Protein 1
Amino acid sequence: MDKNISANSYPNSWLHRFAVITAVATFLLLGAGGLVTSHEAGMSVPDWPNSYGYNMFLFPPSKWIGGIFYEHTHRLWASVVGLMTTVLAFWLCLKDSRRWMKWLGIAAFLGVVAQGVLGGLRVTLSMDSLGIFHGIVAQSFFALICAIALLTSRFWFRLSASQSPVLVPRGLRSHVLYVTVLIFLQLALGATMRHQHAGLSISDFPLAHGQIWPDTSPASIARYNAERMDVVNQNPITAFQVVLQMIHRLGALLIFLGVAAAAGLSIKRLGIKDYLTKFAFFWLGLILIQVALGIETIWSNKAADIATAHVLVGALSLVTGSLWCIIALARKAPVSATDSSAVFNPQPSLAGAK
Amino acid sequence: MLFLAAGLAASTGSRAADITGVISFKGTPPPEKEIVPLENDPTCGALHTEKPFTHFYAVGPNGELADVIVSLNVTGKSTGAAAAPAILDQKGCLYVPTILAVQTGQKIIVKNSDPCIHNVHTVSKNGNDPHNDAQMAGGPDLNYTFDKPEDFMKFQCDVHPWMFAWVTIEDSPYFAVSGKDGTFTIKDVPPGKYTVTASHRKLGTETLDVEVKDADVKIDFPAFEVK
């Protein structure tokens, strides 16, 4: 399938390992960012790129108090991820013979720069809406880094170079793709909800303000706000936010059904022993955990650690769907025998060539 | 004598009056919450000898309701530039007061009486310039003015996310904030017909029409309640 694959592309196990470490670092950065928003600490360091007038890297730890701790450590860790992504992009450009992989590296580099600037502007311009994009780009960037880790792996090269015993039917691939897109939209919706800084617009579950579908009349919204007694400062809720959470709940149900169907279809079409079937069941497990975390987020009145875990498992769910799609696509059209012999030599001796 | 009488008549004819009243709450307000994050913060927690609670509903024993902004429907009459500055202090990692009303153009001085960093972050919904300024322990006061009327503009500290104050900006001097006994006085109101609005941050607003002639006016709003 990939005529740009050559013996120079792989095995470079260190490049792959570095991509995996970058993905792990990005995952931790997502967690750090999630904690910033969950603790309502996004604006606790008013300046950027400085911190309270200090060079960011020289800001005394004694001043990392309250919300500053979350925001400042997020910035420092983001710098680490930025550096790692830059190294990864250079490495790909220098050592990966696949032209499109070089572009993926460049895209990752541009993505991390854009994400840093977006985070900075969100602070300096004091714009909540930029926080939404910051959250969405974070999820997309994590998926991109994970894809790079997959595409630099020995597994990927074996997959690309060999004829797959069971091809993935187009219908199943499309189904998983649609569900993955739905997860992305759900994450975008979640980011929008979180960056309204209004706490929980519906604080009960399984009912919503005591009803199956909550009353969003002005009088009811006024009553909800009057009854809310949040310790942490929150904006008053609006009818729009209540509807947003209801859509998020319905989206969760749709995603659960979609992923469950993907797992069921995988058994039917690929067989229970196929690694993509196992991957689909792993995906279903993630979604079940995600649903539980979503419910607990409500029941715990949006406890910061639970809400952040909800963000992280959401990111893993997106990545799982994305990687499943990429792998399924690779299995759809394996390279020809001629290309295969030219581009990949699965001999162990080559593994240590680079 | 004639001149004196004429003068008295003229002054009586244009005499400004006060509008007074009592704001009350009917029913039982939702229970206030203990501010646990404050207690758990090593620096801020040490500044309190008693458990800190929210005070969304400052209701007296007989239903007197404090922290209600009472204002007239008058705009374009601000005397804020000449008015004494209003003070907003950060004390015990809480804003004091939490409800404040000022005029457009009136200076607000924000103090930091705490031994720790705060950031003063204003969030406007009506086009006033946003601010987010660092204020170190023992640092100089911060000064703000706002030029657009706005109800309950939020001042918050993101270092300590339980800290907030709500500042209403009026475009005239004709407003008051109800005290602990629920009373309010809007002073020196020129004769005329007005709509008086009482606004509570959580309970919404109530309005009354009133006519001011040559004597003080006492008005009674219906009691606020959680509907």
Protein 2
Amino acid sequence: MNGDLREPSAREPLAIRLASHGVQVAFIFGVLFLWFLATNIWRVSSILLPNPVDVWRQLIEVIRTGEFVRDLRITLGEFAAAFVIATILGVAIGYVISRSRYLIQVFEPLFAAIYAIPIILFLPLYVMVWGLGPPSKIALGATISFFPIVLNTVVGFGNVDRALIAAARSMGASNLQMFRHVLLPGALPVVLAGLRMGFTVALLSVIGSETIASLAGLGHRIVNLAENMEMARMFAYIVFVIAIVAVLNAAISTIEAYARWQ
Amino acid sequence: MTAAEVAIRVRDVSHQFGEAGQARHVQALQNTSLDVHRGELHCLIGPSGCGKSTLLSVIGGLTTPTTGTVAIGGKPVRGPMPRDLAYVFQENALFPWNTVLENVVLGMKFQGVPKAERQERARRALEAVGLEAFAEHFPGQLSGGMRQRAALARALSLETGILLMDEPFGALDEQTRMVLGEDLSVLLSRSRKTIVFVTHSLGEAVFLADRVAVFSARPGTIKEIITIDEPHPRKPSFMTAPKFHALRDHLYGLLHDEIRKSMTETAQARRRYDDTAESPAATPPKSNGGAA
């Protein structure tokens, strides 16, 4: 037997990982401590920056009374619809484009150019067409997250190693087998990265557009509280949204890791 | 071996990439004809860019030639013929997301082998190349030599009469390719397959082949076919025999001028490419290789 096994890539030593986690935790506590100093010692106006203790109390109340449920349901519903629409359209259209060199030549630069435009500027148009309710948020979120998804799908499926495709073809792979065993696994890492980006921008655009023009939703609630000068409660909602986003991100990371492993 | 038993018949195959007059136009093959006999190992050797890999791809049905025909066992080639021939590629074309065993099994699935037979045949093929202990490894965990063994196992498991090998050991170091060459010679003497083997190594060609087709510089065509009259399996001692050196020197003599020509041709082509980048109506490349 010639040739030897390559070393399995060494994992980062535990000490280094613990140390970096320690720094991350210390950073968060540092920010909280500065917040505390700013409100209690340096006496920053509570209209600009409410006391963290007040914010905590408000947060407990928001959760205890369950008043967040309706807004959360609306925002998550809009986000889910936007992301699902963008994923279905982005992956399907991206796959079709990736099958033809001509289509790639035409559409890849076009989509890349549109992707660079701040599409949120078209929100007034979306509101005129779809109204102030959830449909305009869904349409905008879907539009914005469509582009990273379609672009990565085109690149992912378009750049599968040609040698692998030729090998499968020479062994008689059917179109379905080619897709299932060669194209899909070959494209998956890049497509997943696109879905990840689409996920993030869909969430940003839904919440962002709620803060600009809407009737309900977490973004709407936050702006509303700001307009009523209920700063502690507004901050409580911001903390709440951050927590929700962190949970969603953890969830998609888990799904992504599982898909990659598969 | 009777000359009547022709496994692969290549007739007047020419192939060009791009249209004449375009900057990227390349006449890769010109009026090439070749008969590969059943059970022989036929090497194709020639300067880089002479079209030897293109010819292999045409035989394998992966490239449709501009003109000319290929027939396998009398059947004209119109596309991949997975039941008749298996391919071992230049770069390793193993699926990186599958283990070695899964790669072999998947090849048979593509080819249409019944599910019940696949595992057993895969085990046997891996044993034949000495990789049975690495069945559950992923290609990325193997050395280059082991990856090419795995690719060979995948091709062997398909149990085709013909094996096409496109510089299968090209990316390996000298020692590894010598050992793999010996193993291949032993393996082939047992399996009696028809093999077309593209290489740029003179030693490899003489060591492995029953016949060697020497290609001219681009546009490629077969300049001469030499016979290596030495029974398989060939021992490492053959490499030090006077006969080996005489054949190798003869081959080098045939190739030497073609390699010079191909180097000049490449330099000219580059200059021409630079010219055509400015004026698209430049003349197409002139042929300067001898026709067979």
